[in-house]
Amino acid sequence: MLRWIVRRDLILAWRRRADVFSTVFFFVIVVSLFPLGIGPEAQLLKSIAPGVVWVAALLASMLSLGRLFANDYQDGTLEQLLLTPQPLYLIVLGKIFAQWLVAEIPLVLIAPLLGVQFDLSKETLLVLFVTLLIGTPVLSLIGSVGAALTLGLRGSGVLISILVLPLYIPVLIFGAGAVDASIMGSSTESDLYLLGAVTVLSLTFAPWATSAALRISLE
Amino acid sequence: MNLYKYASPVNFYPLAGKMIPWFAIPSAILFIAGLYIGFFVAPTDFQQGDAYRIMFIHVPAAWMGMFLYMLMALYAGVGWAFNARLSSMMASSISITGAMFTFLSLVTGSFWGKPTWGTWWVWDARMTSTLILLFLYIGFISLQASIDDPRRADRAGAVLALVGVVNVPIIYFSVQWWNTLHQGATIRILNKPTIAPPMLAAMLIMLAACWLYSIAIVLVRLRCIILEREQNVARFAEAAV
């Protein structure tokens, strides 16, 4: 069931490739705006790089959340998925996984390139890559709760941001903190472990909250 | 005595009306007493001078902000689990008072910070977590305001409040972590005075006053919510004063 859902969502996303690319371009543009706003001084840019890349990743994830359930909701597929005898937890997990592959992995792959713009060392680029790899699933997982709660509402785009961004703050703190530690030369272990802990916690509980929210939104 | 009849919003309405003066009047008395002791009786602080007196509003407001969030999540959860409309209405009512107290604690904290730390805002762990708590409240209020169907709004709010409650410790500890790792150049000593008895008395009186005020105002707002949502119940429309 899980494989089927993931495969279906990936095929549907492939048919709308433009959405994926626009998310990535948004990420790149936002990250590039900060040096333009702050100034080209290399030392300053290096110190703000972790925060800037992570916040841009958060915002780019926000944009792609609307797509998670909206299309299926509009044509009635979501209702049918809720009626299947398969556990909704698995269906939601499958959709989130597909969304992570399509919307977040491109960000993770592009981020080291953007890190080069900020003159980060190779080790720091690796840490950036790893923190985004571990942290972006949380963005999809917690974001899915917001997407399910605001299904079909007017102004749901901004509303998702208000709901979900405060919940993203631990991920931001640990993710950017790990990259920052790498720049300073100190140990990144603690931040990475805590980030991993948040990921595992979200992986366990978020699909359950999302299922409950979907049933509430669709009744 | 059958108390369960008060689970109906229409039955609870007159009971709430009778309860309100019992909380509002003691609250007003305690506010006056607490502020009097806080401003005139409590001695001037050795280190902070008279600026510390804002603590008598700031600390109760901060406590209320936090407790009311837990209470809101509890009522919302109970309303969702037991399908109890009144419980969810209570959660909606509490959310606004909680947001107000959280905002008040941030503002009074800034007023306290300016004379003592020299700056309106610092990103220390407690101020930052209180700011995030305010965002959580605003999210809850916005979500309920965006959903037209009241029952869907109740349940969606409950999911959000419960997810928030689980996150509050995580957010608090991550902000503490962030703060200790990224400690600024100046080390501020947060003054926890060896509390003189009048100061402690004033603090506790103000806290009690805030609790009583919260109960009173939440009940007033709850009555408004009941009026809005139950207006089509025939016997209610006739009986409601």
Question: Which features does this protein show?
Answer:
heterodimer; A: 219 residues; mainly alpha; B: 241 residues; 7 helices; 77% helix; 0% strand
Secondary-structure blueprint of this entry?
The complex is a heterodimer of chains A (219) and B (241).
Chain A: H1 2-14, H2 17-38, H3 42-75, H4 77-83, H5 88-117, H6 122-149, H7 156-184, H8 189-217
Helix pairs in contact in A: 1-5, 2-3, 2-5, 3-5, 3-6, 3-7, 5-6, 5-8, 6-7, 6-8, 7-8
Chain B: H1 9-41, H2 55-81, H3 85-117, H4 125-146, H5 150-181, H6 197-229, H7 234-239
Taking the alpha carbons of the first and last residues of chain B, their distance comes to 25 Å
Q: Calculate the mean pLDDT score of chain A and round it.
A: 93
Helix and strand pattern of chain B? HHHHHHH
DSSP strand content of chain B: under 5%
Number of helices of chain A: 8
H/E series of chain A, N to C?
HHHHHHHH
Overall shape of chain A: elongated
Largest interface: pair, residues per side: A-B, 29 and 27 residues
Residue-averaged pLDDT of chain B, rounded? 88
Regions with little confidence, pLDDT below 50 for 5+ residues of chain A: none
Largest sheet of chain A: none
Distance between the termini of chain A: 24 Å
